[in-house]
Structures
1.
Amino acid sequence: MKRLLILGLLVALASSAAGASGEEILARLDETMQSNSREVVQKMTLVSAKGQERTRQVQMWSKTDRMLVRFLAPADVAGTGLLSVGDDMWLYLPALGRVRRIAGHAKKGSFMGTDLSYEDMEEFGKTGFAAAYSPELIKMEEEFYLLRLTPRSQDRGYQYLEMKVCRERFLPLRIEYYAPDGSLAKVLTTMDFQEVQGRPTASKLIVEDVAKGSKTILEQLQVDFEPDMDEEIFSTRYLERGR
Amino acid sequence: MLALSRFITRRPLAILITILALTIFFGLGARQVTMTTNIRDFFPGDHPEVKAYDAIADTFGGTEYIMVATAGEDVFQQESLELIQSLTERLSSIPGVDRVRSLTNVEEVKGTPWGVELGALLEELPQDEEEAAHFRARVLQDDFYAGSVVSRDGKLSLLALELDPQESAVEVADRVLEAIDEDGVYATGAPILNSLLAKSMKEDLSRLIPLVVLLIALVLYLYFHNLWGVLLPFLTVIISTIWTLGAMGLSGRQMTPLNSVMPAILITLGNAYGIHILSRFYDEVKREGRGKAIENTLAAVGTAVLMAGTTTIAGFLSNCTSGIVQMREFGFFTAFGILIAMVISLIFIPAVLLYVKIPDKGASREPGALAKILQRVAQLTAASPEKVIIVALLAAGTLALGIPRLTANSNLFNFFDQSTQPRIAYELVKKSFSGSESLELVVEGDILAPEVLRSIESLQNELEATGLTGKPISIVDVLKRVNMALHDGDPAYKAVPASRELAAQYLLLLEMSDPDFLTRFVTVDYSQARIQAMVKDTSPEGLANLFARVDALTGKYGGKVTTTGMVKLLDALAAMIIRGQIASLILGLIAVFLLVRWLTDSWEGGLLCTLLVALSTAATFGFMGWTGVALDMVTVLISSIGIGVGVDYSVHLYSGYQEARRKGEESAAAAAAAIRQRGNAIVGNAAAVIGGFLIFLFSSFPPLRYFGSLVSFTMFFAAAFSLTLLPALIIAGNRTGSRTVQKGLFQ
């Protein structure tokens, strides 16, 4: 009995000495990525399974639960805007000259035609991962922690995630999304790390949809974590102005 | 032949053991043979039509469909809708089914009070009569749905299952057939037919082959009246069939509807060589010891067996020029089987004969009715060869006039009788919907440009105006719907978006709702769009007509258009059948001519025998033209059998004529003697072959029935011409020949 106690103690000591728990790691990761507001210029390249490409460039402003996206390129969609406030979404098509509301369940769908869903997207820097997943530390390497994230609610759409967290910057290096049937659905990889306004950030993300064979490359061309923006931009009135 | 008989008499046991060992070896290989009915397997992998077909599947998703129809009084009734919903869910979950499009899940571009979204046409099942009636009215007046997911009279609904191009369509079809067990639910489409075809063909053959075997056994028994006389020719064909199937299995080949007739062919044709050898041996053994009797037998009939065998092999090998993979394989492996049957007859049968008990009485028979008829034929031919020639040529000529009417048909639907379940489902879908096979057009260009969209629109309109397809669907229809929905449902806006920006922004909007929705209409880079239309008439004429119209229409369209789809493959296959047939006919005739020239050592013999077999083949094709029987994947085989086997009779007769000439008879008497002496064997052999092939009349597949009767028809002609036209030609030819000589002498 005594021996067992000592053994237990040793184990506990060892694990604490090795570093943080899954919860702590995930909390630090969310903290690193979350920002109250930001302004980003992003290039999105969609690559189909056959290798055909389509590139779009957008400018995004976000603050708490509000987001405004404005398409910059290609020319035929330039000026198209997307506003999301809470669960509501509006779209402005300049060629039509009108703002239209999009159904609420669009949030479950693809984020602007990419291989990421809105929910996937929002976990990066907005809602964070800890709110939706309970983490478990399954491995520790010199460079990274390996976390297994299990959804807190049934409707999250994944069975679990496996995330490699960079030990130095507390940013995700690679996330594997597993479908409800246990098969690998998507793989997200981050690269080109930078320091912006004192915050580490990955300026390139690649998301591969394993089942479809398609791929999305997201490149941050500009990022500002302390943008100077008017609250007014998160309104349909502003959306309709087109610029 | 002498060396061969010495070898056999010295080492009979070694021969028997070797053959047994090889049979076991090939028998194990034969177990690996599987059956395929997939149309694509008929093409070489690098065929341009297959490449085009695969390319569109790669870019836009599957183009192979399984159609499931539900029939009832009114599909909008609660129960019917529940059935459709349950089928939709059940079928969607089948591995290999990419998408199911049905009344209960079809997308609708909805103009909502505040915008537009892609949603389900039917979000919830109607709760009462009123809701059902409202839903019914909404669907039936919309030509996007009426005629595609619901028949225009509302009595049938259609579930279109889009298949994963990576999966075997036939396996998916098996799973689909397993998943539906309700009454009034029908499945059709090429994969379903392929699956049913593979299954019923196996059943059919396992019924037919025993019948063929039984018939041949009966013929053999009637001929020899003893056990070994039945057993030995029989073992020969069994061994050759096992070796052939084994060779197919070991080289990874598959059975197809086309070569499924091969075992029956081998059994029917392969035993003739054994009969030849046995009947001579029984004659010889009355006078000599066994060893000597074998030597004499092989010396006497060995060459005849070689003659019959090599021409038959040449006939089958002539299929190897075909562009159709399965034709080449059929030709090659059947020739291989015949070769084995010939070799086994020459080696195995004599080796066994050294051991078995010899019956006292041989095959000695009284001259019967047949001999009397032959005697009469001989007299008639010798007396007035010109009359015989005129009558025979008139008969063959009249039949041959039907050749221009000959058609080719590669449609698998023809394998099923009108009254069978798969055919009923096929006709049902064809009648109430546009059809179950799709025509796919891939247009290239700057798709979003209004002028390009408008030319796609007019291409579609003109295609629909031909009346040969259902309503074509493309990105244009999607854009028109969004345009209207975003203009508060104003029908004036059910048109191509006015600017490229508008089109691009509409698509962006749809993508946000469901990025996968667009992938089947347009490529990610908007450089290619797909137009899909269901084809109403998949008969060869219907397809030829359709593609002629489509070619004219696509020629008018500014940019590049690729036409493909399963129907295009069917059409290409029909063309290949005809082309392959012509090439193999010519090649077969040349090969037969050279062989007969060599075997009879006579130019006259080579020419006459080839002419005869060409005539009987022409008569058969003409007969097909007159009766409207199409050349399809099975009936296409008749000419190679007709040539290779049919020529045996004329070679037989001609060598009888030569034998009589060597004995000093003049030509007319020699020809008459040949009819009398060889007629018996010719009639006997032809009767056995015709009997064997007539068994195919018991098949449940129309093409196999046609095949059986047509081969019988050719054999009848070949045998009849050999006994009448050939001797008449010999006699007439020699008369004119000698007259010319005389004229020359007197000048």
Note: Chain A has one domain: 21-241.
2.
Amino acid sequence: MNYITEHPKLSQFAVLLAVFFLLYFNINPADGIFWRLPSLLTDLPRIVNDSVDFLMFEWWPIEIYDPEIEEYEETALLKEITRSFSRSILFCIELIREILLGGVKTIVAFTDWDFVEENEWARLPAMPWTVVAAGGILIGYALKGKGLALLVAFATIYISSFGQWEPAMETLSFVLIAAPISFILGLLLGVFAYKNRTTEAILMPLLNVAQTMPHFSYLVPVMVFFGIGDHAGAIATIIFATPPMIRLTLLGLKKVSPEVLDAGMMSGCRNFQLLYKVLIPTARRDILIGVNQVIMQCLAMAVIASFIGAKGLGFNLLLALNQLRIGQALELGICIVLIAVVLDKLSLAWANKQTDYFADLPFMQRHKYSLFFGVIFITGIVLAYIGSFIFKDGINYLYLIPHNKGITTENFWQAGVDWIWDTFFFSLKAFNESLIQDVLMPMKAAYLAMPVVATFALVMGVGYIIGGIRSALIVGALLLYIALTDWWDRALITAYMTTFGVIVSVIIGITVGSLCAQNSLATKVILLVCDTFQTFPSFIYLIPVIMLFGVTDTSVLIAVIVYATIPATRYTVEGLGSVPPSLQDAGSMSGVSRLQRWVKIELPLAFPHIMLGINQTVVFALFMVIIGAMIGTDDLGQYILKALSDKQGTGNGLLLGLCVAFIGLAVDHLINTWAKKRKEDLGIA
Amino acid sequence: MPSKVSSDKKKNAVIKCDSVYKIFGDNAKKMLQKSNGNVDAKEFQDAGCVVGVNSASFEVYEGEMLVVMGLSGSGKSTLLRCISRLTDTTAGNIYIDGKDLLALSDKELINLRRNKMGMVFQSFALLPHKTVLENIAFPLQVKGNSTKDSMNRALEMAKLVGLDGRENYFPRQLSGGQQQRVGIARSLAVEPDIWFLDEPFSALDPLIRKEMQDEFLRLQGVLNKTILFVTHDFDEALRLADRIAIMKDGIIEQIDTPANIVLNPATEYVAKFTREVPREKVLNCESVMDEIGDLADSDMSQLRVSKDAIIETVCEAVLSEQKPVAVVDKNDKVVGALHCSKVIHMLFGTK
């Protein structure tokens, strides 16, 4: 009895579990509404579709002059707006792309196709790859020094020698448009939310949903509004990359100490100066993390955007994955990672660049980098010209290495995969089968056999115990939406895969994190590993697992586990590292053993932070499960993927996306509320 | 020695506060109007308002250093923020050089801050992304001065506060004392007439604090600014101030010279601070001496002490004399007599 009064929460949980199992075993499919809620929202996708169609094609008709038929034509306002928007984005992308690779579209934009066809000279020539590479190296050197220059050199030479120059430049041209736009948009909205509380209140829930929506579900509406092509890919990327930027800008600005703000005011800053010279630079740390996030999201989207027509590495990677050409996929994956790392380091170095005020330099010195680039430019062109004499039979390696004409390690990797298959075929297969038959199938069945009432009781009960009636209602409402759609069973499958992934990730993450936190060197190493892995776009993780396990649920789950273990590990290490040293000392002086220290001091204090890591793990796992649809699952993700190829898929895509987002948000709400309360109780908030 | 404003010089009020109120809360203005100027902190608190400054009226004269002393929550920083207009004053008037501060437009306010005011902050408030030099030059660049001019001026300032050689360091690479030197240099870069210091040395170690106080006195000796200095450290106030204003719960309990505060604490609260103060370290001869009255020259010893001399420094000499010691002013004119008994009473008598 004492135990119950001392641990009220624990007994509440016990009661809750008892209720849950009672409901679970006593309600069966015959019980109608207690088993599954009626899908009242079946019509919702159609309604969404119709309203989008109306907005796009009928709302606010205007007269537009069409030069081809030389007459005024009636069209919808929104359609014209999105069209001109698409056109300008596409023009920017094409411009950069043609500077890098050559082409005629930029000139076409100012004249017309006939003109270009008649005049052969009317095309932008491609810059020789040597010039682009050397230019990149020079920028790296100018911004940070030798180290960065070497990195850029490695990346560019790798990309060109593996024959991925063209797709890489295509990807780059689209990232160079999407990333700055996302950055500026995110910064502006972040600042706006900081200045205006109402904006913040409106923006916050939108950001929450936007950040938990799976990538795929953005694609359908973007396709409807903006069509297909590089611009649509860029727009989808912008929509996806802006929310973290907004959030981090706001976070950074809020952390600026009020005294620094006062100091700015007392220095006589005008409003704009205060923002531009004091607030934003002081919040630089978080804003730079935002920039990093933007670049990562852009490259993560490189693959996904290829679904709606973005060209480049992502498209090729998708093809390679579909054809199970593991070696090529790996090479492409490395290209994407390299571009991501280089862009990230360059932007970081640029932001940290210092000016020297007393360098009273002559013209040559002041413009040495521009002059040097001029030299590179001319040398590169001369080299390319010489190259045209050396390589007579078609391919001028000093000008442009065409796609797939470089060296390749594909055969090596393929041989490796074959070897693994030959050697470990039976053990891999046995592992795969036993996992699927003994663990995954029963687990999936158990989830699907859960009556809707039991699910609600469990989730709302947990909400009530953690955060009172308010939390219970919030998670209940989020769940209710999913239960009323057609996709409750799919959501249960998503939930089962996520749960499995999260449990394994958390076990691995906490174990590895705790072990590494014992030693400062190991801590550094593991954080570096986490950083590196986080740079990889989520798609990359699918490559090696398909290599080992083929197209099965196991592959998806292993990719989920690898991907989701990163935050679990990182937050464990950080949480354990932030336990105050005075408490550690107090423990030592009380004579605790290593294990006791971990169990009694470190873990309880670090646990709220670790829980936030688990929260991230859930979000990461959810994303990966959805992306796993690419290699064949039967959960929500698969339906979203289907919506992509459906003309009327907008409603389905968006509403399915909301289902995934709501699962994420419910977990997020529960964990955050708990962690906040726990931190307050421990006095470390 | 802090420079004293001589009474014969015409006093020119640079800052003038006239029954200034600052009350935090949604219906502060209404409550204040209803109370007709008689603010009772408790009553306001019940209504959800917090009284920051309660009817503050005083003047700061040109070249004078007024130290506002009070414990945390006494409203001293709020008062400073009202005068620098970092917060809006709820009621009352503030005049800077005779101009109504609260009536200034935003543009005029920015001009005032760019040219007349400098401020030093407790936690330094340096811009983390700028070097020492860039931080010092910041107010000048904001003002629109050319980069070359502002950098040269910043170099000068860095030298003045003893930071030469560290111009290109970042704030995070400096110790607390050095960071505050940057803060001081920045606040002085525009050559302000009025200098606000908000607990500038509170975040520093005791030894560094002492060093910075000396440095501060040295600077003030050179620059002779009008200063409003906020601190919670009574010893610091005594050490630096021309006059001290002691605040409690938003009310200025007493405003006077350090000597007068120590000798005649106005309220029980002020007395609590003065009780433990070693008087010989605070009082000067002028505040202990008697009128000459009918004392003849022959009744006095040959020793002469300056009226500004701190008792501690002359005490041994004075006590070894048999006769009262003459106290002289700057022009060597005898203005009073110091009796041994008076000195002994001051040193050992019941306080």
Note: The first strand of chain A starts at residue 61 and ends at 66.
3.
Amino acid sequence: MDYRISDAYAGPRSEDYLPASAATAVKVVIVGGFGVGKTTLVGSVSEIRPLTTEETMTQAGVGVDDLAGVEEKTETTVAMDFGRISINERLVLYLFGTPGQQRFWFLWNGLFEGALGAVVLVDTRRLEVSYEVVGHLEERSVPFVVAINTFPGAPSYPMRDLRSAMDLPDEVPMVECDARDRGSCRDTLMALMRYLHSLTTAPPERQ
Amino acid sequence: MSEAGQCWEPGSPERLFALSEDGGPARYKGPLDLVTLIVTRSVPDSGLQPEQAAVLRMCDYPLSVAEISAYLSLPVSALLVLLNDLVAQEHVEARPPVPAAALPDIQLLEAVMHGLQNL
């Protein structure tokens, strides 16, 4: 922690900079419910400590928060954690962990535009959260793989059962992932890249 | 479809405009993305706002919009207003991300896979 007191902003540490040659970036979005392990996954593979960017959401205070006569708009700050992997001297991969609710996705304009694809991180104890996520990604034509975060003590189901419970198309890859384990998270990202590779090289069979 | 969820309003426009140079719509030279890389091209001068000067000090080496937002604790939407001014005045260079495409480029994917294998 060597930020200068005279400086109002704590900038990056010297080791957190990219090389001057870094020319372009790509992004992958990690989607999942609260507490499913998105930030853990990002932290496991990121070369920088996960950072947090925030956006403010203004909503009429109806329904959710009972403000008892206060008809003002409420502001909610929504945070998104992200990390970074330098692919080579010129190319950088960013990983963004975002909540599953679609209303958050509009906060970060263009989060999914240009994203290579997404990893849907699933906790088998709260499978219902992922239904919505999968639907939204399909709507937006964002290619994704499903990663089952293997929490200790979480019930283990056959992949086939999970696939049918989530109503996932056969071609969408499913992998197990321990979000705390670097190798496991790397393999999950590799599964996404291989899937994208297969989509790119194989002509679409349907539609 | 994407319009369907826009029942909320974007946050705090008054604060964003307060931070922008002229209060009007930012001079737009192509949209900046969360992963657009920003690199400083000039030394901060006294006419800049503190946040803008902080960006110039921070971006001697490339940093993404998302990283700058995190380090400055500024919402991305507010930061974009500042950055659009800095780009327009050529204080910073913006290196755009790989352009959006229906399907990514094979060579790009292979480069990413190669990079991940080295993790």
Note: The two ends of chain B are 38 Å apart (CA to CA).
4.
Amino acid sequence: MSVELALSASAVIKVYEAEKGIVQALRGVDVAARPGSVTAIAGPSGSGKSTLLRIIAAIDVPTAGDVTVAGVSVSGMSPRDRRTLRRRSVGYVHQQPTDNLLPDLTIGEQLTLVANHRGASPADVERLADLLGLGGRLSHVPGEMSGGEQQRAAMVRASLGDPSVIIADEPTAELDSATTDAVCELLGDIARDRDAAVVIATHDPQVMQAADHILFLRDGAVQSETFEGVERAVIDSTGRIQLPPEVLAWYPDQRVRLEFDPETNTIVIKP
Amino acid sequence: MSGGWPGWLAFFAVFAVSVAGVASGPVFVEAVGDAIVVDTVVTQPPVARAFVESFDADFREASAAVSDSLGDIAGLAAGPVTYAIGANRTSANNGDRTTASQVRLVYHQGGLDQLRPTATSGEAGVWIGQRLAADLGVGVEDRFLITDPQWILDVPIAGVYADLDPFALGAFWERLPVEVRPRVDLLFRRVEPELVFVDEETFFLLVGGLTEDEARESSISLGVDDFPPLNGRAWWQATAFGGTTGAELLETGAALSDLQAAFVDPTQPLGELMRGAGLPRVRIDSDLFDVTEDVDNAKAQIRPSIGSVQLTIGLLGLFVIGLGAWFVARRRRTEIRMWTIEGTPPWRLGLQAALAAVPAALLGAAAGTVMAPVLVRALGPSPTLHPEALSSPLIIGVTVIGLVVAGLVTTLLSARILDIERRAAVPRWVWDIAIYAVAATLLAQLTIGNPVDPATGEVDVAAVFFPVVGITALVVLGLRVVSMAAVRWRTAGGCLPTPAFLAWRRIAAALSGHLGIVTPIAVAIGTAVLASSLATSLSASLDAKSLVQVGSDVAVPFARTAVTVDLPEGYSLVRTGTATSQGREPVMLLVIDPDTYGAAVPWDPAFGADLAEVLELLSDADGDRIPTVVAGPSNDRLPSSGSRRTQDMTLAYEVVGEIEAIPLMASRRTTLVMRRDTVIAWTEANPDVSGWAELQLEAGDDAVEPEDLFRALQAWLVSTDTPTGVADFLAGIRQPADLIETRSGTLANAAFSAPRWAFDYLRLLALVSIPLAIIVFAFAVVEDRRRMAVAHALMRRMGVGSRSSSAAIGIEVTALVAVAAVLGMIAAAVLSLLVIGQFDPLPRLLPGLRTVIPGSAFAVAGLIGLLGAGLVWWAAHRSAARADVAEVLRVG
């Protein structure tokens, strides 16, 4: 039985020209996320997490590959259509609480503003705010709230209008451990309650633990994937496989022999 | 979307300044018109005069109607009426003796009261002058005949008056039409006709204008039975009120034109009345018509220049509005990013920014509209305000375009805010070269072409743009050099105290990183200084040129017969003439009297030397040759010694110095300047060479007067006295004052006034640049306050004391602003010296344009720099002091 995906990215390549030359940020990444799931994208700095997030959020377009959000292919879309797609189907939470909220408006005012923008009802605002424990804070401006509360408000904002995909770029980076736990729980609640695919870029093991599906990126490619607690190496669509650095260290000349055992369906790597 | 109250205030101010600058253009043009009219009124109240060259016998009613019509025009006071007959081929006799003098019978309202009687009969009749009475041998109660081929009048003499002095008529008689006042010819000899004055009743009796009963009852007898009706001329005079504004005077001129049309239009009651009275062609002549034409010409002449300055101010204002929108959008970039991710199109964010700026823009535009006439009053040639000249489409246009620019800038920034592709940006040097190229092109255009059209005084658009573009190019170049040096020397501050060390390291980094703040400040200050320098230099140059053209504040050609009179303090005689030499271009000879010259001629440093120095050089005679200073074009060199011949004399000269110009010299003609006393001494010592012997021979037994030496030269009376004072002096020595020339009059001439006014308006560019610089500072405060607060917090966290950290920020801010101000001022000074000569509006007149860099402009620029630095430092310090260090560091 095939499950309709909220988000899928296939063989995504992103190359851009920087001042110091050509940068290959993504080298053929595959991602898929079901509605109601939480996907964590992990990896060291510079591994391409943010680039991937911006592409699957329809903020940017891939150089090659295909990205589908809410059943719509993003590749080749005009900026105007991407804006419409973002408005209808994507919620976004930034790393810094101050980047998510307008400092001069109360939480209630700005949630209402966004709800109008995305076609959500005021009742939705109240329900979501209650769900995320912000019911009593709607009349406060962001400056009067803690970082955790601000991030929760950002999540309410991102969830308004029932987007298919909610993307969060390291949403717990500024938060303490206890608040991080709470936020992770909320993200899971949101995913299930709104039937949305939540995609989170993170370094945080706590967040990864809370995710259904974890992708480890390294040097712009998916190194491994953890699903239902089992970590697997990933062979990308071009047949390449990435070895973890500690394994790679066993083969200093980076030349190996592969032996396939058809009886056990096993590939053995020998020096 | 706004930038908080500083942003709002800055938007308000920039809209106010931009609208005031642009909207003041038409008001300034009107003020110029006003100034021309008012100047004319001040120097000579305009006179409106209706006149006819013939009239029927009974024109009394029509005459009253003409007089009343003139008096009914607002701004005019009906003046005297004048009727005259005769003077074509008239003669007068008393039966025994005849004089062939032409005689004119004149009735001038109130005229008899102004005559000084020497004898009177107390009866009705005519008044004749003493000279005519003597010629005819008649006196009061005699009768005399005025004969004409067509008619004869036999009239009694009621009185004899003291002849009017043509050189000292006084205000009453000077206003009379030239036909009915005593005159002199070019040789100052009195010319005919002799004026015979009559009262109104006698005049109408003579022209047959009285009814039969009136004639019968008249107190005088004509002495002829069959008296023919006579024709003559009539004038109805009206004078404009003094102190009337130029606009009202122009309205008076228009009303006079309408009246002129009504007089000759038979379908109108007035025209019908005139036609019935034999006055079908009443014409009105008025100085106001000429003034109107002058005003129209001057306005047309300066309008393009004013337009160029308006355009520059408008573009500057829009640039600052764009800069402000950029600052505000950067400050609100989080918000913009958030909405963009939410799918809001950039144009909508731009529209929101524009709408948010609407209240500030509208209030600013309103303030600018109010300020425009005030600015013109401060800068313009007339204190009279002309708010009616404000152009609503212009004001609305500037406001709307400003809002569009603010919206566009926000739209562009919004469109790029999610652009994560760090595309290879256009390298910095490409922009730099583009600016240098535009500046070089404008410079070439100014150097090769004429930034100021010598024919029209029109200022080229390139000339108006050059201050801004040239300053920008130099400032950018200077900043590149300074920032490179700062980066190179950034490690050199190790031995400095902590605040200075920190400031130095931050400045080194900031100079290249904050070009967006430093450049606009430097450009605004530089533009203000350069525009001010240009305007001051031009004003000074026009003053000097007018002095050369006129000779002093007041100058008048002086009769040879009067050159021996004693001159009061502030008066001097200067003699000019042509001196020739075979095979060489004629030169001009100018002889000054060293004893009186200094007090009678304001000397200008632009002439090329100090007057005392020139006089000293000219006195250095060795007996062989006359020491001479050469003034004029430097490319027209004379031999350093030689001889030149005037009409009577040959003078041997020796060049002892050179100056660029001297008052009264001919335009661009080499002029030999000599002292009167050295010329006399030399000619007496060299009778064989100079022609002294011929003069002695000619004089015979009489002594040769030194003045005879100069009889081939034209004498000019020059003075620093007022025109009225000079006129009174001339009247006192019985010399005509008709040819008085004044420097103020010359400066009011369109050739001088058009460029002067255009460049006066350029001062507005300087004035506008100053508030714009302050506004840029305000934006800098908005932009930099947070950065400074974070810097302060970081320094505190590093263990630097509060005072040291505050001092470091103060030093950094002051240094940045000081660099901007100094670069702006240096750029302005360099450009002033480089191009100012090209702006000479009257290159045919010497002296050439000389750079005058007003110290006040530098002082104001320095003050702005200081205030700006203080403002930024205060704001940063205040933010830093109020900020929670931990919070600032966490979110900063």
Note: The CA atoms of residues 43 and 132 of chain A lie 28 Å apart.
